[in-house]
Design a protein that fits this description.
The complex is a heterotrimer of chains A (416), B (339) and C (337). By secondary structure, chain A is of the alpha/beta class. Chain A has helices spanning 13-19, 23-34, 37-56, 58-61, 114-133, 149-157, 168-171, 205-241, 243-257, 261-272, 276-303, 306-314, 318-354, 366-373, 382-408; strands at residues 84-89, 106-110, 142-146, 163-167, 181-186. In chain B, the strands form two sheets. An eight-stranded mixed beta sheet of chain B has the order 6-7-8-3-9-10-12-11. A four-stranded antiparallel beta sheet of chain B has the order 2-1-4-5, covered by helices on one side. In chain B, a hairpin with a 2-residue loop joins strand 4 (82-87) and strand 5. Classes of the chains: A alpha/beta (416), B alpha/beta (339), C alpha/beta (337). The B-C interface holds B 62-63, 171-173, 201-207, 209-210, 228-232, 234-235, 255, 258-259, 268-282, 285-287, 290-291 and C 45-46, 158-161, 188-194, 196-197, 215-219, 221-222, 224, 241-242, 245, 255-257, 259-265, 267, 271-274, 277-278.
Chain lengths: 416, 339, 337
């Protein structure tokens, strides 16, 4: 019976202490060692979660259907869409038509104008609402007809009538001449605004921006994943096997890589034709060389590391060397590239749709919106500002994620 | 003539026959064209020796001696330019990839740098058990037990704690034990130890040396121990070969070579090694010059430009290894004067 | 002119590093002298703080480390108070360093001659170039470097040669102190032996003091006049080389010396195996840092830290075995003189 040798090392206490360093603790340790980076991780994580939520369930956030024309065109953010308005004497305390809705009140409008229909419609709606509520109130102001807006406004100013109804468009040029009157707002009392305004087709910018997240994420992630799935194995095998296969593949990849990105994507998209699938393919092809190069370079260097040699001397078959020894040591660098890549893919997708390639024209997509809005920079700055802001935000959060991953994935955070 | 009980059993586990390994200096055709000639680094330039079953054979030398290359050739990690490596009667050069890989089970390596030779992304347990998974896949249910056993045996207790750790979570001395465990788990016959304790702390070296000696006994191992540290070699090697610039200068029983060296280079080496005793400081002077370029070794005896007893013939004729005493050989024209 | 005051006086030097696990004191209240013209061997394992100490002597500690306490007196002046200008003069001209890897310490695009000339010009702007060349030539002869080597680039030189160039960089400016930090670790044994001879000759001829930092005990026995042993940031023993090797007092020194292999056939057949591992300096053991591994540990050792005391003339130990303390129950040992 052999005697176990007296080995002097029981596990030292500090080594056991170090084991208590779990993942969460590691995050905090990262903060102590690297200074402020923990907040980097926190911020990018929160941003990213928010963006993913937007993309996954845009219908929860978007107030309108992005394709529906829900309001007047080119409405500024927060601006109330003024259709038909109620004008009252300057000194009056009236705030809406409800105040002057009794049959003792006189409300004027131009004879035969759509304003009269609007007035009738509004009173009907209000009465219906009151009937439902069972209040028994009826609004029945007495109509006074005028030939022109000016005559009506003059009477309003002198107090002969309580209110006047017309469209804002008509009233705008006249109002400066009648200081005795003021506009109290929409006839229907509608004060709902569009948070980010509307575009030239009357579509809600906010909804379009939110729905655009979905497209961006789908295209960005899919193309990045596709490029990853093709580029990484090719790089691995090429770097490992070497020889003429490696040389030919590298030449191919290098020529793809040397193309200016967007131009290549344009070429491919033009060849493949329209459709979201083709866009994804075009962008994926664009990024395959990136993964290939990085992985191949890493493989070449890891291939010569001592532990790979040790694996070889154990008798490990080449396939296992590739998957168990080389791949795990190559992957961390690629993961970081991946997250930055997604950001880049989103940008490229925006660029492609900006140029009108790929996605159907009415798709709620940031690139398309940017393209459509570029003619309106002066008049309606919000058309490009918000989609542009979203592109930057998403790009930023993916890049931040990539940077923070580099810290967390580093196994040396729990080192001795 | 010894009667052999087992017809397959040879006395020599490893036979190195006239081994040469030359590395081209100019890597590509274009470099060659520009240089006008083909240069080679003659890392190993005609070395022959045998390693007997069950012995610890030391291969010592300074930089450029070729000791590491010979080690790698001996276990088939490199193919020789010329010459043969015979392992248990099998010519390694004639094996194909698959056969060679299967032979690996019987010859394992302990590398110099434990941190670099362990996969940073594999747990220690995984790294060590790979040998079993590759060579004994059918006995999968026994793997874990064998793994825990070997960890305990090399002193990494409690084993259950260590098998889940990563290389960067343990100390250098512990890492080297893991490397030893990995080498021994398949019960090899030959273990190539390439400067195994050079990177360990001074106070840990004695432990590792002791461990290796014990394991040799228990596991019935044969060591090919490569080192530049002659003092350490004394504690583990039975026989030793001294290399100089790709050729064997002297070979024999370690105690004899150390106490009565026959080659001037060996003598210089032994004098140069510092002794941890201030009363025994070196008084002799060292040979002039430095180790020459292995691309263009000196003519004749490679040591002759620096040798204190060199004569005309030394520059013209390269001496062969001659047996000057039983089991003790030296490659020097004038070694007799030291007998 | 025979100045007997020490060249360097280190008093309570402490160097701390900020690490993930907290502040670690890589060098903890270390005090000793380096005498003029002596070769002092600073010995210890990796992590004991010897390299850090060497760097501190040239004030080359970079963040996250810093010299947090103590004094380093060079020729009576505390170098920790030097400003940038004074420091630059000190480094290279008064104290110089040789590193382990000579390849990376020499500028690959400068020839040997350019290195030397630059060194002189930086420190002694007014010296004539004719004088500089003459000095360099004499020095090369003295160090055994052939004149033809002056025009070589570092990659054309061998390891031993490069180390000699490093030495010459210190000597050309007549430095008083050369710090050799594992200067021979990467060299072959014969080249190492020649370099050791060289260092001794330089000391004899120029009177420089040499601080040889190494983990190689045998090397220290070969070349040092005095030996300082460090463990886990503390200086545990200091004395004449013969005394340290013949009568080591500190249990760590005793263990260390007994565990070193020797090439002599009939000596030391068995090596002593020291139990345990060096501690993590972020959580050092309380009291004496060696006590968890010490065969002679007493109860006081885990509570209080002993100071460095002169147990015999010229022989200093950092150990409770040789010191008194009110709480100590055991007898104090007396070291033979």
């Amino acid at each position: 019976m052999e005697e176990k040798p007296t080995t002097p090392d029981a596990v030292p206490q500090w080594q056991l202490d170090l084991d208590k360093v779990g993942f969460v603790r590691r995050l905090f340790l990262a903060r102590k060692w690297y200074g402020g980076d923990w907040w980097f991780v926190a911020v990018s994580a929160v941003l990213l979660l928010f963006i993913i939520l937007l993309g996954a369930a845009p219908q929860w956030f978007a107030p309108y259907d992005p394709r529906a024309e829900v309001g007047p065109a080119l409405l500024a953010p927060g601006e109330v869409p003024l259709g038909y308005v109620l004008v009252v004497p300057a000194g009056s305390t009236t705030t809406s038509i409800k105040d002057i809705g009794t049959n003792k009140n006189n409300i004027g409008f131009v004879v035969g104008s759509p304003a009269s229909q609007a007035l009738r419609k509004t009173t009907d709606e209000l009465n219906a609402a009151e009937k439902e509520a069972g209040t028994g109130i009826t609004y029945q102001p007495r109509p006074r007809r005028y030939e022109t807006n000016e005559l009506g406004l003059a009477d309003l100013a002198s107090g002969k009538i309580d209110g006047f109804v017309a469209s804002m468009e008509e009233l705008e040029p006249l109002l400066p001449n009648f200081p005795g009157v003021k506009v109290v707002g929409n006839l229907s009392g509608n004060t709902r605004t569009f948070t980010l305004g509307t575009n030239q087709l009357g579509q809600d910018v906010l909804s379009r921006v939110i729905w655009g997240t979905r497209i961006a994420l789908i295209v960005g992630l899919s193309s990045a994943i596709a490029a990853f799935l093709l580029g990484v194995p090719l790089g691995l095998i090429s770097g490992f096997v070497g020889g003429p296969f490696d040389r030919i593949l590298t030449m191919l990849m290098d020529s793809l890589y040397s193309f200016p990105g967007l131009i290549l994507a344009i070429a491919i998209a033009a060849v493949l034709g329209a459709g979201i699938g083709n866009v994804i393919v075009a962008i994926a092809v664009l990024y395959i060389p990136t993964y290939f190069r990085i992985v191949r370079g890493q493989t070449l260097s890891v291939k010569n590391d001592l532990y790979v040699e040790a694996a070889r001397s154990l008798g490990t078959p080449p396939w296992q060397i590739l998957t168990k020894y080389i791949l795990p040591n190559v992957i961390p660098s690629v993961v970081i590239i991946f997250s930055v890549n997604v950001a880049d893919a989103i940008l490229t997708e925006a660029g492609l749709s900006f140029l009108g390639l790929g996605l159907p024209p009415d798709t709620p997509d940031w690139g398309i919106d940017l393209a459509r809005g570029q003619d309106y920079i002066r008049r309606a700055w919000w058309l490009i500002t918000y989609p542009g802001l979203m592109v930057s935000l998403v790009t930023l959060s993916f890049s931040m994620l990539g940077e923070s991953l580099a810290e967390i994935l580093n196994p040396r955070l729990a080192e001795l | 003539m010894k009667t052999q009980l087992f017809s397959k059993e040879t006395e020599n586990l490893v036979e190195i026959q006239d081994l040469k390994k030359w590395f081209p200096v100019q890597k590509s055709f274009l470099d060659q064209l520009l240089a006008g000639r083909k240069d080679f680094v003659r890392a190993v330039d005609g070395v022959s020796f045998n390693i007997r079953r069950g012995e610890a054979f030391g291969l010592a030398g300074e930089s450029g001696s070729g000791k590491t290359t010979i080690g790698r050739l001996a276990i088939g990690l490199e193919t020789p330019t010329e010459g043969k490596v015979i392992f248990d009667g099998i010519d390694l050069g004639r094996q194909n990839e698959g056969e060679l890989r299967r032979l690996r089970r019987r010859m394992q390596v302990i590398f110099q740098d434990p941190m670099a030779s362990l996969n940073p992304r594999m747990t220690l347990g995984d790294s060590v058990v790979q040998g079993l998974k590759i060579h004994y896949p059918e006995a999968a249910e026994k793997h874990r037990d064998t793994l825990l056993e070997i960890f305990e045996r090399v002193g990494l207790t409690p084993a259950r704690y260590f098998i889940n750790k990563y290389p960067h979570q343990i100390s250098g001395g512990q890492r080297q034990r893991v490397v030893i465990a990995r080498a021994l788990i398949t019960r090899p016959e030959l273990v190539l130890a390439d400067e195994p304790i050079a990177m360990a702390d001074v106070s840990v070296r004695a432990l590792l040396l002791d461990l290796m000696v014990q394991l040799k006994q228990e596991f019935n191992l044969t060591y090919l121990f490569i080192t530049h540290d002659l003092a350490t070699a004394k504690y583990i090697c039975d026989r030793i070969g001294i290399l100089y610039l790709g050729r064997m200068a002297e070979i024999g029983d370690l105690k004899e070579v150390y106490s009565r060296p026959l080659h001037p280079y060996t003598q210089a080496l032994l004098t140069a090694v510092p002794v941890p005793d201030p009363h025994k400081r070196r008084t002799k002077s060292m040979p002039a010059g430095e180790i020459p370029n292995p691309i263009n070794p000196p003519s004749g005896c490679r040591f002759h430009p620096r040798c204190p007893i060199a004569q005309a013939v030394c520059a013209q004729q390269e001496p062969e290894l001659r047996e000057l005493r039983p089991g003790h050989q030296a490659a020097c024209h004038f070694a007799e004067q030291f007998l | 002119m025979n100045d007997t005051t020490p060249l360097v006086q280190i008093r309570d030097l402490t160097v701390t590093y900020k690490t993930r696990l907290g502040p670690t004191s890589a060098v903890d209240k270390v005090s000793f002298d380096i005498r003029r013209g002596e070769i002092l061997g600073l010995v210890g394992e990796s992590g004991c703080g010897k390299s850090t100490l060497g760097k501190a002597l040239l004030r080359m500690i970079t963040p996250p480390g810093r010299i947090s306490a103590g004094q380093i007196l060079f020729n009576g002046e505390d170098i920790l108070t030097f400003d940038e200008k004074r420091l630059r003069d000190y480094r290279g001209r008064q104290a110089s360093m040789i590193f382990q890897d000579p390849m990376t310490s020499l500028n690959p695009v400068q020839t040997v001659e350019q290195h030397l000339v630059e060194a002189v010009e930086v420190h002694e702007g007014q010296t004539q170039s004719a004088d500089i060349v003459r000095r360099i030539k004499t020095l090369m002869e003295r160090l055994g470097i052939m004149q033809s080597r002056l025009a070589s680039y570092p990659h054309q030189l061998s390891g031993g040669m490069r180390q000699r160039v490093m030495i010459s960089l210190g000597l050309v400016l007549n430095a008083g102190l050369i710090i050799a930090d594992e200067a021979t670790t990467s060299l072959d044994v014969i080249v190492e032996a020649k370099l050791v001879d060289q260092l001794r000759e330089i000391r004899d001829e120029y009177g420089v003091s040499i601080l040889a930092i190494t983990h190689n005990i045998a090397l220290v026995a070969e070349m040092a006049d005095r030996v300082a042993v460090m463990y886990a940031g503390n200086l545990v023993e200091l004395g004449e080389v013969n005394r340290i090797f013949d009568w080591p007092l500190h249990p760590y020194t005793q263990g260390l010396l007994a565990s070193v292999p020797t090439i002599e056939i009939h000596e030391r057949k068995e090596l002593f195996k020291m139990p345990g591992e060096p501690p993590n300096l972020a959580r050092p053991p309380a009291g004496c840092r060696f006590h968890p591994r010490c065969p002679a540990a007493m109860s006081i050792c885990s509570r209080h830290r002993p100071g460095l005391q002169e147990a015999a003339p010229g022989h200093w130990v950092h150990c409770w075995l040789y010191q008194d303390h009110p709480e100590k129950e055991e007898k104090t040992l007396k070291a033979a003189a």
